[in-house]
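Input set for joint prediction.
Command: fold jointly, output tokens.
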Amino acid sequence: MRVFIHDLETKDFLALFPKPLDKTLTISDNGTIHHCLGCFGCWIKTPGECVIRDEYGNMGEHLSRCSQLLIMSQCCYGGFSPFVKNVLDRSISYIHPDFQIRNGRMHHQRRYSNEIDLKVWFYGENITEKEKQTAQRLVQANAINLDCHVYSVSFAHSIVELEEKVLWL
Amino acid sequence: MVIALINGSPKGRGSASNCILQELKPLLAQDGNRVLEYHFRNPALSPTEMEEIRDCDVLIFAFPLYVDGIPSHLLSCLVQLERYLAAIPKKEIMVYSIVNCGFYEGEHNELAVEMLKNWCIKAGLTWGQGIGIGAGGMLPMLQNVPIGHGPKKNLGKGLAQLAHNVLERTSGESLFFTANLPRIVYKLAAEIGWRRSIKANGLKRQDLSLRK
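tokens >
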């Protein structure tokens, strides 16, 4: 299965993906997402799922069943947009609270054993070179922390340009 | 000089970000400086908050690292502030940032510091300095340890340097440091802590590894 997290408006999403995506769970912004409260409840109260029971409370489980994680996000200061970042903040039940040392630094242990390929498309009219550098490094850092593989990171100025980049999706 | 201490943790109380700001506050409250405190806990700011921020000389953000970056609710506030500040004439505002993470190494915070620096440019503000603190989860439990001593020795040095730059209104290189205790001790303490917490919630230790 693929998990596709995006922040596109409905009209742009339909322009890019007029047909339903095969074997893909699409996570869109329906305006109801609550932000992470930093309570660690997804580790110590309801392990494996977020204590906030909105439509985004099972992200850890969704990630555990996927082999590809696709992210399409506006680039904000070299990171993801608030919605996409919110979904990722709400996904930490995917990992285990205990630590291990990888690449000489402390990271969390895995909770699940699935292998994930990560593909990211950033878009925005005014992405600076510095922001692109930050974003590239961010995706690498995310991949280390989620213990997954970066398949690709790309940038687009507009939705039209995104269309060219995702034709193969 | 009007200095805003902005706590970007979503936690109501007991956050490491608040502990850090409370240690920093006495270092800045001098020479007639006015220190204002804000808590950006939610993803939206009020018009009053934005107007007050606009009138400050210095903004100091303290927030936890979430998934290698800025917590989403704070990011929403920054987007809102960028649009507001970029559209109005304003005086020079210096921005400083203190990011803490639960990992041992302070360097994990580097990208979040960089993102705040990128935000500064977009909002038309002046970058001051960024600090990245490792083992931040320990700070709320060390409130009785004086700053600059024991595990808070590095924190003392880092905050003193930041305060100096703020008071001089100068910029400085980013600083990354951790608590003054061995990594293995921190790792063990954290893992014992998770086991105590899950048992306190009526679950078993092995439930930490539950799969859905």
